[in-house]
Write a structure and sequence with these properties.
Elements lengths: L2 H16 L2 E9 L7 H15 L1 E10 L11 H13 L4 E4 L5 H11 L4 E4 H12 L3 H15 L3 H9 L22 H31 L3 E7 L5 H9 L16 E6 L5 E6 L9 H6 L1 H8 L3 E7 L5 H14 L7 E6 L6 H10 L4 E2 L8 H12 L4 E7 L4 H10 L1 E8 L2 E8 L1 H7 L8
Parallel strand pairs: 1-2, 1-3, 3-4, 5-7, 5-8, 8-9, 9-10
Antiparallel strand pairs: 6-7, 11-13, 12-13
Helix pairs in contact: 2-5, 5-6, 6-8
Length: 438
C-alpha cells in the first residue's frame, strides 16, 4: 500500500473514532429461522457498536419470502426512510444479505444522504478494522473485493461521494485511489491478492508442517466470537494474547506451547471466532487460517456459558466446522465464563452436555480439570515402552522428557533406562532400544 493509500485509510479510521455514526437496524422474521429475530437483531446491534455506530432505531417485518426488489415490502421501505430521517441516521443496516439490485433500490428510497449496508458488509467492515497481520489484512481485502464485484456500480458510487467520509461500511476497497474503477480492475486486484495469499499460505503451511512433523499433540480453540478463546489461551499458557469483550477482537491465529502436568509439551492454537450468517467469502478468504483447526488432533469448542443463545451459537460453529471439513475431528465442548452463570443455568448445561468441561478463564475455575481431560485424550493412544538409551543418545532422552510421559528413569552402566508412555509418532524412535528387543 502506498503512502497516499495509507493516509486515506488512517484518515477514515480517525474520522470513525472521532464521530460515531447513527444507525437504523432492519430485520425480517421468516418461518423456520434458526435464530429468534430479537436475538439476531441484538447481535446486529453489538456488531454495529463494534464497527463504531450507535443504534438509534430498530424495525422489523414478518415475511414469507424477501421482496425481490427491496427485500422488505415497499411500504416498509418507506417507513425505514422515515425512521432514518426522524433520527438523523447516517446508515441503515439490514440483518440479512441484500442483492445488488435490492441495495440500489433501497438507496433510492432511503435517500442519498444515508448509506444502506447489510450484515455481510458490516462484518467485513469490522474485520477491516481488526485485521493486524499482513495475511489478515489481505484475507479481509479479498473477501471485500469479492463481495463488492457484483455491487460495483452502486458501491463505487458511494466511495466516490463525499458523504461517505469514512466510518461504518466505508472501509471497502481499502487502498483504491481511482473512483472510476471497473470490474476488470477489481478482478485484477482479486487475482493479485490471491497470488500473495497463496505465497503466505505456503509459508504458513511450512511452519504448520514443522509442528506436525514434531509429533506434538495439537489442540485448536474454535468457537463463537467473544466466547473467550483468547482468554482461555492466556489462562492455559500464560500468553498475552489480546482479549477484549468485543466481537472479533482478534482475527489472526496464535499458537503457543503448553506443558501438561506429566511433562509432555503440546501446542494450543487460538483461531478466528465464528458467527451466525458468517459470510462465505470470509470462510474462503480465511481458509489458510482455519486450516489450523483441520490439522489439529483435538478441537476445544469454546462456548460462552453466560449467553442466552449458547445452543444456537454451538450450532452456528458446528455449521462452519462442517464447511471447512473439520466435522469428524475429536471435539470437546468447553463452556467458558461459568463465573457469570447462575446455579440453575450451570445445572442445565451439565444436564444437557454431560461430557462438557465447565470453566472460567477469568477466575481459573475448572481449568485444572480441563487440562487433565486434555492430557487423557493426548495419551489415549500412547504405547508403553521400557527402553535402555545409550548415553551417547542424550538427544533421545531429551525427546522422551519433552514429548513423552516418563513413568520411571534410572541411570545404568549401559545407558538410561526409561519406562514411558509414547505417542505413535514417537514410539518408533525408541523401539530399537526397547529392553528385550532385538
Amino acid at each position: 500500500m502506498s503512502e497516499f493509500e495509507s493516509a486515506i485509510s488512517r484518515g477514515a479510521a480517525a474520522l470513525s473514532e472521532q464521530r460515531r455514526e447513527r444507525a437504523v437496524l432492519v430485520g425480517v422474521e421468516r418461518p423456520g429461522a434458526k435464530w429468534p429475530l430479537a436475538s439476531s437483531l441484538a447481535e446486529l446491534e453489538r456488531l454495529a457498536d463494534t464497527a463504531g455506530a450507535d443504534v438509534v432505531a430498530t424495525t422489523s417485518q414478518r415475511l414469507e419470502a424477501p421482496n425481490p426488489k427491496t427485500f422488505i415490502g415497499t411500504g416498509k421501505a418507506e417507513e425505514v426512510a422515515e425512521l432514518a430521517r426522524a433520527h438523523a441516521a447516517d446508515l441503515v443496516v439490514f440483518d440479512d444479505e441484500l442483492t445488488p439490485s435490492q441495495q440500489a433500490n433501497l438507496e433510492k428510497t432511503v435517500g442519498k444522504d444515508v448509506k444502506v449496508i447489510d450484515r455481510t458488509a458490516l462484518i467485513l467492515d469490522i474485520f477491516a478494522l481488526h485485521a493486524t497481520s499482513r495475511e489478515g489484512r489481505l484475507q479481509v481485502r479479498l473477501a471485500q473485493n469479492e463481495y463488492l464485484l457484483p455491487r460495483l456500480r452502486g458501491m463505487w458510487a458511494h466511495l466516490a461521494s463525499n458523504r461517505m467520509g469514512g466510518g461504518v461500511g466505508s472501509r471497502f476497497g481499502e487502498g483504491e485511489s481511482q473512483l472510476e474503477v471497473d470490474r476488470r480492475m477489481v478482478r485484477k486486484r482479486i487475482t493479485s491478492i490471491k497470488r500473495e495469499l497463496k505465497h503466505l499460505a505456503e509459508v504458513r503451511a511450512v511452519q504448520r508442517e514443522s509442528r506436525y512433523e514434531s509429533g506434538m499433540f495439537k489442540v485448536a480453540l474454535a468457537g463463537y466470537t467473544n466466547a473467550g478463546k483468547s482468554s482461555l489461551l492466556n489462562r492455559l499458557t500464560g500468553a498475552d494474547v489480546l482479549a477484549y469483550d468485543k466481537l472479533f477482537a482478534t482475527l489472526d491465529s496464535t499458537t503457543r506451547r503448553f506443558e501438561l502436568p506429566e511433562g509432555r509439551e503440546i501446542t494450543i492454537t487460538d483461531t478466528v471466532g465464528f458467527i451466525q450468517k458468517l459470510p462465505t467469502t470470509l470462510v474462503e478468504a480465511f481458509k489458510s487460517t482455519l486450516d489450523e483447526i483441520t490439522g489439529a488432533d483435538l478441537v476445544l469448542h469454546v462456548v460462552d456459558a453466560s449467553s442466552e443463545e449458547r445452543e444456537a451459537q454451538i450450532a452456528a460453529v458446528e455449521d462452519v466446522l462442517e464447511q471447512i471439513g473439520a466435522q469428524d475431528l475429536r471435539r470437546v465442548l468447553v463452556f467458558n465464563k461459568c463465573d457469570l452463570v447462575s446455579a440453575e443455568d450451570a445445572g442445565a448445561i451439565e444436564s444437557r452436555h454431560a461430557q462438557a468441561q465447565i470453566v472460567s478463564a477469568a477466575t481459573g475455575e475448572g481449568i485444572e480439570a480441563l487440562v487433565d481431560h486434555i492430557a487423557r485424550i493426548a495419551s489415549a493412544h500412547d504405547e508403553r515402552l521400557e527402553v535402555l538409551v545409550p548415553y551417547e543418545r542424550g538427544d533421545l532422552v531429551s525427546v522422551a522428557h519433552e514429548r513423552c510421559r516418563i513413568l520411571s528413569e534410572a541411570h545404568e552402566e549401559g545407558g538410561t533406562r526409561i519406562t514411558m508412555l509414547a505417542s505413535p509418532s514417537y514410539a518408533g524412535m525408541f523401539r530399537r532400544f526397547a529392553v528385550g528387543g532385538e
